Amino acid sequence: xxxxxxxxxxxxxxxxxxxxxxxxxxxxxxxxxxxxxxxxxxxxxxxxxxxxxxxxxxxxxxxxxxxxxxxxxxxxxxxxxxxxxxxxxxxxxxxxxxxxxxxxxxxxxxxxxxxxxxxxxxxxxxxxxxxxxxxxxxxxxxxxxxxxxxxxxxxxxxxxxxxxxxxxxxxxxxxxxxxxxxxxxxxxxxxxxxxxxxxxxxxxxxxxxxxxxxxxxxxxxxxxxxxxxxxxxxxxxxxxxxxxxxxxxxxxxxxxxxxxxxxxxxxxxxxxxxxxxxxxxxxxxxxxxxxxxxxxxxxxxxxxxxxxxxxxxxxxxxxxxxxxxxxxxxxxxxxxxxxxxxxxxxxxxxxxxxxxxxxxxxxxxxxxxxxxxxxxxxxxxxxxxxxxxxx
Length: 391
Known about the structure:
Mean pLDDT: 90
Distance between the termini: 37 Å
Helix content: 25-40%
Strand content: 5-15%
Order of helices and strands: HEHEHEHEHHEHEEHHEHEHEHHHEE
Shape: globular
Strand order of the largest sheet: 7-6-5-8-9-10
């Protein structure tokens, strides 16, 4: 089977579930693979190889049990591949031994660059796409499948009858519930957009989508269809005038060149310092965000503050009416992003990057996070492009 599956015109992206996420952060790695395909190869296609982890097929971290990870894998990770037209196939392997055979056959066409099964590496979360955006490489834009867009248009036409609409996405997870937005805040934001002439689609967290009542937020459409189907969600976001929300699903807006969005609640309560460190490692400057496609984008760090979100909504309304509004108002500068990443990679590596790789010089760079198992599980970050290892 493997001999027939491997072809010489395809980049094989090994997605190693021994540590890789079963969350919307998977999109970051798929975007990284697409940057590698476009900027470093002549391949038309990618193929994603899912390598099973050693803990019930997944990684042992992030607090979810195996059943939830399995559900998220099939409901988030796999459907995300349908947003990338170049991804023509995927393989969900049963064993790491099978992955070793696949890796041998695909030698020379493998991403992440330098991937070894014993050092199950990835290009983690946000920092690789962000680094390349600031080096001058255009971020690929995801697109929902055509059929998903057609079906969502039918829903929109029936529900809001040609009225402009916005989406509000709410985190309502049972995991780290202190991060969830209050219904009072969501209600204030929804009411403001309704008074401004917009219909509101409300997307609850998938964990509570089935139990939430239709009248939880008055006058909005509780869109379970999009909450439970990722391709419908991506299509609804693309058709909306504006998308407002927090949590992983907003990644679908960040990497779609047709989406305007406001991301709020970036600084969680109970441990804000730790969160700021995590965000810096991902390439974010504190109190700033990233605008990958020069759309209207606001990144809001205060937690559960409806007035801040409403102010950003007011800016969007002015922007939609043709007023000269800075769409990059909350966007970090290049120096701010590099300063944040130096906290993770070290100042010497960042100085080399600034010397040799700005403005597309030297090709794109990929931050491989490598895990090696032994008596203890060690982690390190390796910066490299297709040919050169920087650290």
